[in-house]
């Protein structure tokens, strides 16, 4: 059966309900023939009932639940299945077109905006209605500017009508208000995430990019299409008819043969939502999502290996690829986390029972020891946490949740919600999201806050795919030469940075043109292809050498002239423009439409304090980089900005990698000394560049063997010298010494990968957003990886420079605390709160790997789909093919010595008050609290110290509260019992805190569960959010009847997970003679 044949058939019966999870919370579901249901429902009050119409041509009648444990009964025989032949098929395309045409007529008659559907009548009793269909609900939505929150947690009780306006509504005023509100919301919900737009319930612009290192395989493209097509329908049902995938772009590598693919426009590999590589690293073939922020925050990308996409044997363990994609999409889009835990597969619940970490708890299975099935007690006593003892799940289940736990189960069709969520399980979802269910987090997303389910008669069309491929790279430099460029050596620095870009950064075979502008644009060089160093030098000769007498700046004139140059040889689609300006321009918005329609990517470089305020809008709307360079030449900001413009679609082995960037103002023949590490992953095309402001300095450079390097090419006009190291630079420490007087020197070192097959160590840095409004903190992130493997224990420093020239230095950490969401994932993070003025701030990151740094292959906690080793079928274990094992060499941390610098772009701050700036920043939330018991009364707590301002400085005090109810502690923290902390004094941020206390004024006896949380308070009495909640359990078994013991060694230690996320290992030391000592150790 072909993919299209499978798509056009109706879904299985268990997927017929568009609100399966919500209805399941209230009652069982019974499928009945449509005509009979309508007849019985007509003229009758149906309190708290809803009869949705779906493509399955069946109805689900909700009946009151008589028992919380009653299972879902969904007869299969009443609904056409996917295997019942052509007679059961619907030609969905024609059907959808007809429904959409009918909907357009309804909208036209009701005067509604597109996307809103007005029904003339309901087909159920008076007691059942559409979710958002009453004028009162419309007025409430308009007044609140948010959907009404109801029992399905997303603003609409049922799938009803999007927007929910009844056609009988004659309140024109309310209708007008609603349409006005919709128009106001469109910009907010269309552009959510990196290029993905949500409109009329469909996602457009999803970008899947295949890495240039992946060998050409057309099956890979076919399987990507099949995966996302399957995922679209699965997602539509899992989200209760809210969202689906409509338009997807697949970026084909330029290394593959041309095959009538469309040309890229503004799509870049680096901005892809999904990447496909042959880099296996610590994850093997496991699909995963890079999540570097907290709960409810979007991730960076979904990662698949090409083997996962073409090797069908792997689907036995992961499940159908479409289901896996939905699991990963929830990570990426909505910031939810996994509900399983490979490291802590078991825990003790509130009744001191051993439970399996799962969600929902209704999923069944059996314990399996090394030799086969075994009783739970045997597994617990002997090898609970040792290799060979596991829990294998039944292949046939009644449970419908959860996708974030085990998407591979055929019965799983929804996310865990408030009814099915397992709050006790020690998984990342509970730890990161304060015990909230995945559906609760998803329902709070912007996607859901501004949309309702699709009309019940509508069904999503299959996704449409566009195959795109980058053609010739085309770049045009558009450079400001207005009179203000004469200030602060700006023209000189422009020449130095642009020459550096042309000689070293831009890739071979690129077409480059040059434009200068003031009040009008001027062509300085038509497009010229770089095939040799002579071509590079020719382009350098066309750089502007003087400034204009005009002070006026017209950015649009420069851009239009750039488009003109490009169009003489190519379409502007996929071309790049590097726009540098230092001047004010209030007319920049006049060419926004032309820029959008051009298909070009515009990278903006704001130079000095007065560059046009709207400049960054050009890079935002085209997906380009936005950078800022101050007039402080010693910070080397302009060269860093141009150095960050390496191709976004080329192979990483061809990109220039910056090893060093440093500057210093010297006096009285002072020396600027330093070293640069050249590691084994780089070394080709290595360049040392020195710039100065007045006269040529003395330059000394020695390679790792101590040999002096001569041959610097000196350009006295642009005041720079550079040395290209022939071949591959020697691995090791290169040393330099520069001497000068009364001038500023800078040093920049770049290199390229030493091998096309060995991924180089790369550092990419960014801020969490492009704009910051005081007192909201910014967060800076630096990702350090080699391929897909994280580099750990590096020393990472960020320097943030304001428009005033003031710099703030931050040490970035990968410790899982503060701004860092996950420990040891190779993403180093820190909050920034040291605002000193409004305006632009630049970001620069240094990373140094020395004796402590390692390419750690010990797998960090990943966020991705679980692989099942086997299933229980008819009482027998059916083992799945084992996953390809990762080489033991890859699991060992190898020492890595390296140095890198990276531009993190820029951001714009607003709302910063005049000095003195008030303290409005609280301590950050503690997210790594752990607890254990000593003896039968002492509780030991550990956590990473927050600061006075988020993760900086020192908090003033801690508030520790305890409760026997985990939910009361979370929801009524201030009412819970407080622990005496008079002798607890906070340490400096990111230090390790330890506190031991004895519970008082609360029962703490055998069988007691105690839950603990911490809150930090600063000197201004600003309080952090409460920490993750941890728990300890006191369990003393009854004494056995006296008997004469036989000689026997003590029982082995037993490790059992405790109840709360993040936690907690229950370590039982069972000594002979019945003495039992229990403690909880985390880690």
From TrEMBL:
Keywords of the record: Autocatalytic cleavage, Calcium, Calcium transport, Chloride, Glycoprotein, Hydrolase, Ion transport, Metal-binding, Metalloprotease, Protease, Secreted, Signal, Transport, Zinc
Region ranges (Disordered): 26-46, 69-90, 145-169
A GO biological-process term: calcium ion transport
CDD domains for this protein: vWFA
Biased composition (Basic and acidic residues): 37-46
Gene Ontology terms, MF aspect: intracellularly calcium-gated chloride channel activity; metal ion binding; metallopeptidase activity
VWFA domain span: 474-645
Keyword check for Cell membrane: no
Pfam families: CLCA, VWA
Compartment(s): Secreted, Extracellular space
Main location group: secreted
InterPro entries attached to this UniProt entry: CLCA_chordata (IPR004727), CLCA_N (IPR013642), CLCR (IPR051266), Ig-like_fold (IPR013783), VWF_A (IPR002035), vWFA_dom_sf (IPR036465)
GO cellular component: extracellular region; plasma membrane
Similarity annotation: Belongs to the CLCR family.
NCBIfam families named in the record: choice_anch_X, hCaCC
Protein name, UniProt field: Calcium-activated chloride channel regulator 1
Gene: LOC102738682
């Amino acid at each position: 059966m072909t993919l299209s044949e499978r798509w056009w058939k109706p879904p299985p019966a268990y997927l017929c309900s568009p609100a399966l999870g919500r209805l399941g919370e209230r009652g069982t579901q019974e499928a009945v023939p449509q005509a009979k249901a309508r007849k019985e429902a007509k003229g009758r009050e149906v309190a708290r009932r809803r009869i949705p119409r779906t493509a399955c041509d069946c109805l689900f009648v909700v009946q009151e639940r008589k028992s919380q444990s009653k299972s879902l009964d969904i007869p299969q025989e009443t609904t056409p299945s996917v295997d019942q032949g052509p007679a059961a098929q619907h030609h969905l395309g024609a059907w959808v077109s007809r429904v959409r045409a009918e909907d357009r007529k309804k909208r036209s008659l009701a005067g509604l905006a597109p996307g809103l559907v007005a029904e003339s009548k309901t087909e159920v009793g008076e007691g059942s209605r559409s979710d958002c269909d009453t004028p009162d609900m419309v007025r409430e939505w308009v007044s609140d500017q948010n959907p009404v929150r109801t029992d399905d947690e997303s603003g609409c009780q049922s799938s009803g009508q999007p927007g929910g306006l009844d056609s009988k509504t004659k309140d024109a005023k309310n209708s007008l208000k609603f349409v006005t509100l919709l128009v106001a919301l469109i910009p907010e919900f269309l552009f959510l995430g990196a290029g993905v737009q949500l409109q009329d319930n469909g996602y457009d612009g999803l970008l899947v990019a295949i890495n240039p290192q992946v060998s050409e395989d057309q099956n890979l493209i076919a399987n990507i299409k099949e995966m996302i097509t399957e995922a679209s329908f699965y997602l539509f049902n899992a989200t209760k008819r809210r969202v689906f995938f409509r338009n997807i772009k697949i970026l084909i590598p330029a290394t593959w043969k041309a095959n009538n693919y469309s040309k890229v426009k503004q799509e870049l590999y680096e901005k892809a939502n999904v990447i496909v590589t042959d880099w296996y690293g610590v994850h093997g073939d496991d699909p995963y999502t890079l999540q570097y922020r907290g709960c409810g925050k979007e991730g960076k990308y979904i990662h698949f290996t090409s083997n996962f996409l073409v090797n069908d044997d792997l689907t036995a363990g992961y499940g159908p690829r479409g289901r896996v994609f939905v699991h990963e999409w929830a990570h990426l889009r909505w910031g939810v986390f996994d509900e399983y835990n490979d490291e802590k597969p078991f825990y003790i619940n509130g009744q001191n029972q051993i439970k399996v970490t799962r969600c929902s708890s209704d999923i069944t299975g059996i314990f399996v020891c090394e030799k086969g099935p075994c009783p739970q007690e045997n597994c617990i006593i002997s090898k609970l946490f040792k290799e060979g003892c596991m829990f294998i799940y039944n292949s046939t289940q009644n449970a419908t949740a959860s996708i974030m736990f085990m998407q591979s189960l055929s019965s799983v069709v929804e996310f865990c919600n408030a009814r099915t969520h397992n709050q006790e399980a020690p998984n990342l979802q509970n730890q990161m999201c304060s015990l909230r269910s995945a559906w609760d987090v998803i329902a709070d997303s912007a996607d859901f806050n501004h949309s309702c389910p699709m009309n019940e008669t509508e069904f999503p069309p299959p996704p449409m795919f566009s195959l795109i491929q980058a053609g010739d790279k085309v770049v045009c430099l558009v450079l400001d030469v207005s009179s203000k460029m004469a200030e602060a050596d700006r023209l000189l620095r422009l020449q130095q940075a642009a020459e550096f870009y042309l000689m070293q950064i831009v890739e071979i075979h690129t077409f480059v043109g040059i434009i200068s502008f003031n009040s009008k644009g001027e062509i300085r060089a038509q497009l010229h292809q770089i095939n040799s160093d002579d071509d590079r030098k020719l382009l350098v000769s066309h750089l502007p050498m003087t400034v204009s007498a005009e002070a006026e700046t017209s950015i649009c004139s420069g851009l239009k002239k750039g488009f003109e140059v490009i169009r003489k040889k190519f379409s502007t689609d996929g071309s790049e423009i590097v726009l540098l300006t230092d001047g004010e321009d209030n007319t920049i918005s006049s060419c926004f439409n032309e820029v959008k329609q051009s298909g070009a990517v515009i990278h903006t470089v704001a130079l000095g304090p007065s560059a046009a305020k709207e400049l960054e809008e050009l890079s935002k709307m085209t997906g380009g980089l936005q950078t800022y360079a101050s007039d402080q030449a010693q910070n080397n900001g302009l060269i860093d900005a141009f150095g960050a413009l390496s191709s976004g679609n080329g192979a990483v082995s061809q990109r220039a990698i910056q090893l060093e960037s440093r500057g210093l103002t010297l006096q009285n023949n002072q020396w600027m000394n330093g070293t640069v590490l050249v590691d084994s992953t780089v070394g080709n095309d290595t360049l040392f560049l020195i710039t100065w402001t007045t006269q040529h300095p003395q330059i000394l450079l020695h390679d790792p063997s101590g040999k002096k390097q001569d041959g610097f090419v000196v350009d006295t006009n642009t005041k720079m010298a550079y040395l290209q190291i022939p071949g591959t630079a020697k691995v090791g420490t290169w040393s330099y010494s520069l001497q000068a007087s009364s001038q500023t020197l800078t040093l920049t070192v770049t290199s390229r990968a030493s091998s096309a097959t060995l991924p180089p160590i790369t550092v990419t840095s960014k801020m969490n957003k492009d704009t910051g409004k005081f007192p909201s903190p910014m967060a800076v992130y630096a990702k350090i990886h080699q391929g897909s493997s994280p580099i750990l224990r590096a020393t990472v420093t960020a320097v943030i420079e304001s428009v005033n020239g003031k710099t703030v230095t931050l040490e970035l950490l990968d410790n899982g605390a503060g701004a860092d969401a996950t420990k040891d994932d190779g993403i180093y993070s820190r909050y920034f709160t040291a605002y000193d003025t409004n305006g632009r701030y630049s970001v620069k990151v240094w990373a140094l790997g020395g004796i402590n740094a390692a390419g750690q292959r010990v797998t960090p906690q990943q966020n991705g789909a679980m692989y099942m080793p086997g299933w229980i079928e008819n009482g027998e274990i059916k083992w799945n093919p084992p996953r390809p094992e990762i080489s033991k060499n890859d699991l060992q941390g190898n020492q890595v010595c390296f140095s890198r610098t990276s531009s993190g772009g820029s951001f714009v701050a607003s709302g910063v008050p005049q000095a003195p700036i008030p303290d409005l920043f609280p301590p950050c939330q503690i997210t790594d609290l752990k607890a254990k018991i000593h003896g039968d009364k002492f509780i030991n707590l550990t956590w990473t110290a927050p600061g006075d301002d988020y993760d900086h400085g020192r908090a003033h005090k801690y508030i520790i509260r305890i409760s026997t109810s985990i939910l009361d502690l979370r929801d009524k923290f201030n009412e819970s019992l407080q622990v005496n902390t008079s002798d607890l004094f906070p340490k400096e941020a990111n230090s390790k805190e330890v506190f031991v206390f004895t519970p008082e004024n609360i029962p703490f006896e055998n069988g007691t569960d105690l839950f603990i949380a911490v809150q930090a308070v600063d000197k201004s009495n600003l309080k952090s959010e409460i920490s993750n909640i941890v728990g300890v359990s006191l369990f003393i078994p009854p004494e056995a009847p006296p008997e004469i013991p036989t000689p026997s060694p003590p029982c082995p230690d037993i490790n059992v997970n405790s109840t709360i996320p993040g936690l907690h290992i229950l370590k039982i030391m069972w000594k002979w003679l019945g003495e039992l000592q229990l403690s909880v150790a985390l880690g």
